Amino acid sequence: MEGTIIHVPQKHLVGLSFSGSFPMLVEYMPKLWETFLKRQDEIPLVISPDVRYDISDENLTYQMYTEYIVVEVERFEHIPEGMLGFTIPERTYARFTHTGPMEQVQNTYHGLFGWLNENGHQVDEQARRMERYDQRYVPSVHESARVDNAYEIFIPLR
Q1: Are the beta carbons of 73 and 48 closer than 8 angstroms?
Q2: How far apart are CA 118 and CA 110, in angstroms?
Q3: Sign of CA dihedral 90, 85, 18, 147
Q4: Which pLDDT belongs to residue 140?
Q5: How far does Cα 99 stand from its chain's mean position?
Q6: Is there a contact between 84 and 43 (Cβ–Cβ < 8 Å)?
Q7: Of 118, 126, 86, 102, whose CA–CA distance to 26 is shortest?
Q8: pLDDT for position 141
Q9: Could you tell me the end-to-end alpha-carbon distance of the chain, in angstroms, rounded to an integer?
């Protein structure tokens, strides 16, 4: 597994969120994706409608996770009811690509953290992890077992 170190500029994001324990995420994230995809057209000033992000905010102390399914917008003109908007500051990430069935994602994460460690990179545990989905894989639309699924994983660095 090879990573690429990249600088990502500030992003303004709008979408839906869910908070809960990891077992709850497994159950509710597909529903959140379905709801978001049905409502995405309500969001104005979307930069790339076919690019969606899953932003992860993990509280390891309490084993709670908040996931945000969002799109990037030019600015916050109108945030639809029940949605939220926030800004992620510019920062440096290690970018990796997961390719293959979604059941193999855990292997990808093990590999990328090994690569980070071997190459002397330190993860910023206080920053949010980001996954970028485009036409190669859309959760709740494409079959999770497809061998040609692909999406990008961004790990924040210190």
Answers
A1: no
A2: 12
A3: negative
A4: 79
A5: 15
A6: no
A7: 102
A8: 82
A9: 21
Rama region for 4: left / alpha / beta (φ>0; ψ in -120 to 50; rest): beta
H-helix or E-strand spanning residue 132: strand 129-133
Q: What pTM, to 2 d.p., does this model score?
A: 0.89
DSSP 75: S
> Per the structure block, which two tokens stand in for 157?
């660095």
d(CA 15, CA 65): 16
Average pLDDT estimate for 52-57? 94
- CA dist 31 to 10, 42, 148, Å? 28, 18, 23
Residues whose CB is less than 8 angstroms from the CB of residue 70 and which lie 6 or more positions away in sequence, other chains included: 13, 14, 15, 16, 52, 53, 55
Contact by Cβ (8 Å): 70, 13:
yes
- Rounded to 5°, the CA angle 57-13-49 comes to 120
Which DSSP category does 157 fall into? Answer: B
